[in-house]
Every structure is written in structure tokens, then in C-alpha cells.
Amino acid sequence: MMPLDVYHLQSYYDSPLGELSRRLVGRVIRARWQDATGLSVAALGFGSPYLDRFRATAARCIALMPAQQGVLIWPEAGRCSCALVEAQMLPLPDGSIDRLLLAHALEAAERPEALLEELWRITAPEGRVIVVVPSRRGVWARVDGTPYGQGLPYSRGQLRDLLQRALFSPVYWGEALYAPPIAQKLAIRTAPAIERIGAALALPFAGVHIVEATKQVYRPLTARVVTRKIVAPLNPALAPTTNCEDAAVGGSPQRF
User: Fold this and answer.
1) pLDDT score at 226
2) Is 112:162 a contact under the CB 8 Å cutoff?
3) How many angstroms separate the first and last alpha carbons of the chain?
4) Which residue, 14, 15, 17, is CA-closest to 179?
5) Cα 42 from chain centroid (whole Å)
6) Which residues contact 138 (CB under 8 A, 6 or more apart)?
7) Backbone angles phi, psi at 212, to 5 degrees
8) Phi and psi at residue 12, to the nearest 5°
9) Is-above-0.70 flag for pTM?
């Protein structure tokens, strides 16, 4: 699996098609995280295009970019708030992030479960995680010209099982990018209308899953059925006596 390159990602988001996908996916993220005042917000992968709206109100806002992907300075003006990291060994304390966005990361991870375990560690007990990942049924996963056509796409069931094994409980399921990934001007102009129709009718074949999940603080205990073998009770019984014992009781044996 080839990792996503940071320069190709930036070039994509600088294009009209990339700007369109940023607006359509960002609309769902903004609806879920309307207020991040005083919170710690972070993005792992390439989530900097979606972080700008949180910088003014969040207590801290950082972009974590995996080493195999590369890193770009973010934001372009002001103090740098990005870091090159090892995705499975993040340089953050336990429970330090209130809102965590995972974009262009899970589909490129060699060990998705290990990645989510590390995200569970740094997420606060009341924290929220949003995962943006290509849909297996979507058209975008079949087009190599976009980042969503790289890596491993997921079905809804696969993503749900993966999150639950990592002790994340999904609380919201959404989709985006119903319009096809066509860079022509007419297709880009009509894409918002197609997006509204697709979301209202819950049409299949959307380009990405957008899942919000909460951290499970306590590990669930599963009930185990124990099979017990029922043994019939033993009833006491008199043992039969021998001839010698009978003779001893009745007297000396008779001779003929």
C-alpha cells in the first residue's frame, strides 16, 4: 500500500475539485462540532484544510502528519501548529485531546487497529473522534486521481467493527461526496445540488463515510455461559452379605 504524499494532498486541495470536496466534507464536520471553545482540537493525517475554523476559539489546535506522508507548515501565517509524528507513537499525554479528526490516515494505515488504539489513548474521556474514510461502494474510491482513490476503502460494517474493537462507540453516521469526481466546471457547479439531494434521500454510493464516535472509558464485560454437568445423587444401599457372614450370624455351618 503506497502512503499518501503530503505534496500531492496539498496540490489536490488547491485544485477546484479539492476545494469542492473540502467544502462538502467540512460541512458535515462543522455540523457535528459547532462549538470548540476552550477545547483541544487535533487532526491526524492531512486534516489541516478542516482545522482553520477551530483556530480562533479552541484552546489549542494542532495538525499531526504521519512520517510516511510528510509534513507541510501549517498555518501558512503565524505560529506553526503542525508536527511530523509516528502515528502509532504520538507525542501527546494520555487523554489530552477533546476533538480529534482522522482524515487521509486510516485508509493508508498498515495496522489500523494499532492506530486506533493510540488514538484512544490520547482522546479525553468525554472526547469525540471524527473519522473520514473512503467508502467501498463509492465512485471516489475507484478514481486514482483523488486521495480517496488511494489506500483501503471501508464498508460501514467494517468501519463499525474496527471502531468497536478499539473501544470507540459510534454516535453519528454520515456520508458525503455524492457527486462524481469530475473536475469540469459544470460538474463542480452542480455538485452542491447533487449533495443535498443525495443526503436528503440517503442515496447509496457516496464517496466517503464520516463517523463520529465517543471513547469508551470502561471496557465492556461479556457474559460467558458455563455448562455444568448435572450428576445424579447417590442413594445409599445395603451391600449383599457373603455365606461366611451368614454362617457367623446363624451359628456353625451344618455338615451332611
Assistant:
1) 47
2) yes
3) 103
4) 17
5) 15
6) 148, 153, 177, 205, 206, 207, 208
7) -105, 135
8) -65, -45
9) yes
Residues with Cβ within 8 Å of residue 167, at least 6 apart in sequence: 120, 215, 216, 219
| CB atoms inside a 10 Å sphere around CB 221 | 6
Place of cell 443526503: 199
140 touches 150 (CB < 8 A): no
CA–CA gap between residue 19 and residue 54 (Å, rounded): 18
CA–CA separation, 182 and 33 (whole Å)? 29
pLDDT tens by residue, 109-158: 999 999 999 999 999 998 999 999 999 999 999 998 899 999 999 999 99
Q: Return the pLDDT at 3.
A: 60
Q: Which helix (H) or strand (E) holds 255?
A: none
Residue that has been written with the C-alpha cell 468525554 in this structure: 126
Q: DSSP letter string over 126-186?
A: EEEEEEEEEBTTSSGGG-TTSGGGSS--B-HHHHHHHHHHTTEEEEEEEEE--S----SHH
Q: Could you tell me the mean pLDDT of each successive run of 10 residues in the chain, 256 residues long?
A: 79 96 96 94 96 93 94 90 94 96 94 96 95 95 91 95 96 96 94 94 92 84 52 60 51 49
pLDDT of residue 217: 83
How far CA 137 is from CA of 40, 162, 237, in Å, comes to 34, 18, 73
Give CA–CA dist 17/74, Å, rounded: 21
pLDDT the model gives residue 134:
97
Question: For the chain, how big is the Rg over CA atoms in Å?
Answer: 31
